[in-house]
Specification:
The complex is a heterodimer of chains A (180) and B (490). Chain A is of the alpha+beta class. Chain A is built from 4 helices and 6 strands. Chain A folds into 2 domains: 98 residues, 2-Layer Sandwich (Alpha-Beta Plaits), CATH 3.30.70; 66 residues, no CATH class. The longest helix of chain A has 41 residues. Chain A is elongated, with a radius of gyration of 23 Å. Classes of the chains: A alpha+beta (180), B alpha/beta (490).
Chain lengths: 180, 490
């Protein structure tokens, strides 16, 4: 085996070893720096049923936090707590909260009906009438609608029997969910 | 750079990882590529900027004073000087200023560099060596900068290796330390020397690292007087050609690892190599070993040494063959030298050769029982007679002379000049500078003419023996001293 071949083999081994080392470091970092502390923090929030943290495949991608609720009475309060805990656990890392619900077509249709009033309220600020109208429309099909508003979002929580639908409507950009 | 492949492999893996992670790696690739190109160009001759640094640091020197033969006086002198470095505390107690420099002065090949290396080992110092010519550069100020760097490097290296002294050895120091003011083109040369003087002045006993400058030269007459004054080169150690005892020691050192036959007498070889330097003696032992190898001999015999001495002295044997007529003339010429040499100085001829070597067509190799440093009038006259005998033998046997004797005549004239300068000629004691040229010429001629006449007479008396020697030489090409003496006795 000549020196050039030996050097090539040595270079290739170093290449593989370095890659292995980097991916190993990334795995450990994601597990012990992101997933474990985040799970622990979010599980402590009242009303949170389950938390699933998706590790990002790329280092600069946001962490996806999939979360589902038990019966919650105040969507806004729970969401605020989740946000707060996420910031605490992830520091400067970006994240995205995906709220899982078990809403069906009927609730989706109801949301579309309410959405018109939501859009109107966003334009003219008629939030009191939005709450009235949404309750009224929901009652028609035997459902219940709770609307909470803060300076960033409109929190819409619709329930019928054991089915729930959570919608987070941005007051600025219309996106659903928050990207920090 | 060592293990380049490891660095390249690691960098490639990091770039790949970052690329997979979605980083924008183009700037990284750009800079790494740029770095690679610059490295390649700087490695090639395109941008090979000559470094301005100087001084090669030698690893632990394995040469000790015991490994150097034939320089007992120089060794003792140097050892004494080096004691000042070894026992610095005693020095301080007695208020002795440390030696700043030692100049080793002597002909080439006498072991000046070896002495410097041994000095470094003796003092357990960092050893840096540089050559005087390394300081010479076409850029102004570079020489001085190199001197500064050399001293800084010596101190830094000593600190790094936890040593308290450093030896800077500057070979051929006359290049750097030649007399100032002789170089009219620019002052670069003078600046370099000035810097050396300043640096040597800066050495004091309070320094953490003691720096000793060892200079070596064979032209101490060319050195600037400021360099030779006490406080710069405090000691001037004469490293001369070894005497017989020294040669014997050197030969013993160089034959330590060589298989010698029992007949080899180191003392005899030492006797045969008068005027040889240490390097030449090393060459003799080496050539002898090569000759033994050529002959596929397991041991080096006296004959190998004899041939090796002749080779070192006269050069390699030539394939060029002279014509029969020329060969006869060479044989007669060398027979003349040999006969007269043996007659005037019995047992002085070691061998007579007519095999051409690179430096002579034929030659007579002489030895002497003891090294001589003083010559008498009769001895010198004898040497002249031997020198003239070649041409005179040609005249006696072949009735004509040839150009082959010109170097003999020059040699004879030089000896005659020595006689005159020594106040042994008819004109008595003279002032060499004031004696007129024609007077000198006349005296040389009269000395040579007188000796020529006597030598011619001697050859005519022994014409039969001369003929015999030349015939024998023609047949055998080489006659040993003993064979020659046997022929003369007949």
């Amino acid at each position: 085996m000549n020196i050039t071949t030996l050097k090539l083999i040595r270079g290739a081994i170093v290449f593989m070893a370095t890659l292995l080392l980097l991916y190993g470091a990334q795995f450990l970092w994601q597990k012990y720096y992101i997933t474990v502390p985040l799970n622990r923090e979010l599980q402590s929030v009242e009303g949170v049923q389950s938390v699933a943290v998706e590790k990002p495949s790329k280092i600069n991608e946001p962490v996806n936090i999939n979360i589902s609720f038990n019966n919650i009475s105040n969507f806004q309060k729970t969401y605020a707590q989740i946000n707060e805990k996420s910031v605490q656990a992830l520091k400067n890392k970006t994240y995205k909260i995906n709220i899982k619900d078990n809403g069906n077509d009927e609730l989706e249709k109801l949301y579309f009906d309410i959405n018109m009033y939501v859009e109107k309220a966003l334009i003219d600020g008629s939030f009191p009438s939005l709450a009235e109208k949404s309750n009224e429309i929901a009652k028609h099909i035997g459902a219940r609608s709770n609307i909470f508003i803060d300076d960033k979002y409109i929190y819409l929580h619709i329930t019928k029997g054991d089915k729930c639908l959570y919608k987070l409507i941005s007051r600025q950009s219309r996106g659903v969910g928050e990207l920090k | 750079m060592k293990h380049k492949e490891i660095i390249i492999g690691a960098i490639a893996a990091i770039i790949t990882f970052l690329a997979i992670q979605g980083f924008d790696i183009m700037p990284i690739i750009f800079f790494v590529g740029l770095g690679g190109i610059l490295y390649y160009i700087s490695g090639s001759k395109l941008l090979k900027v000559k470094s301005f640094s100087i001084g090669e640091e030698k690893k632990e020197s394995s040469i000790s004073f015991n490994d150097i033969g034939g320089q007992d006086v120089a060794k003792n002198e140097l050892c004494e000087a080096l004691e000042f470095i070894r026992s610095n505390d005693k020095l301080k107690a007695l208020g002795i200023r440390p030696l700043k420099g030692i100049l080793l002065n002597g002909p080439p090949g006498t072991g000046k560099t070896l002495l410097a290396k041994a000095a470094a080992q003796y003092t357990n110092s960092v050893f840096l060596s540089a050559s005087g010519s390394e300081f010479v550069e076409m850029y102004v100020g570079v020489g001085a900068k190199r001197v500064r760097q050399l001293f800084t490097q010596a101190k830094q290296s000593a600190k790094k290796t936890n040593k308290h002294s450093a030896v800077i050895f500057i070979d051929e120091i006359e290049v750097l330390g030649g007399k100032r003011g002789q170089n009219h083109s620019h002052q670069e040369h003078d600046q370099t020397l000035n810097e050396l003087l300043v640096q040597m002045d800066g050495i004091s006993s309070d320094d953490d690292v003691k720096v000793l400058v060892l200079g070596a030269t064979n032209r101490s007459d060319m050195l600037d007087s400021a360099l030779l004054r006490p406080g710069r080169f405090d000691r001037i150690v004469k490293v001369d050609l070894p005497d017989r005892k020294g040669r014997s020691h050197i030969l013993k050192l160089h034959t330590r690892n060589k298989p010698l036959s029992e007949q080899v007498e180191i003392e005899a070889i030492a006797r045969d190599t008068f005027g040889f330097s240490g390097a030449q003696l090393e060459s003799v032992t080496n050539e002898a070993a090569i000759l033994a190898m050529r002959e596929e001999s397991q041991e080096i015999s006296p004959n190998h040494f004899k041939n090796a001495i002749e080779k070192v002295m006269m050069g390699e044997k030539l394939d060029r063959l002279p014509s029969a007529e020329e060969k006869l003339r060479i044989a007669v010429h060398e027979s003349g030298h040999a006969l007269v040499g043996e007659t005037i100085f019995p047992h002085s001829v070691a061998s007579v050769n007519i095999a051409s070597r690179s430096n002579a067509l034929g030659y007579v190799r002489s030895t002497q029982e003891d090294d001589m440093f003083l010559y008498t009038y009769d001895y010198l006259k004898g040497r002249i007679a031997v020198s003239l005998a070649g041409a005179l033998a040609e005249e006696v046997l072949l009735k004509s002379r040839s150009t082959g004797a010109s170097s003999d005549f020059k040699n004879a004239s030089d000896i005659a000049r020595h006689i005159i300068h020594g106040g042994m000629s008819e004109i008595g004691i003279i002032s060499v500078e004031d004696v007129p040229k024609n007077k000198l010429h006349d005296t040389i001629s009269s000395i040579l003419a007188e000796i020529e006449e006597n030598t011619l007479a001697m050859l005519n008396e022994n014409i039969r023996i001369l003929k015999q020697i030349s015939d024998e030489l023609l047949e055998k090409e080489t006659l040993s001293g003993d064979q020659l003496r046997a022929l003369i006795k007949k």
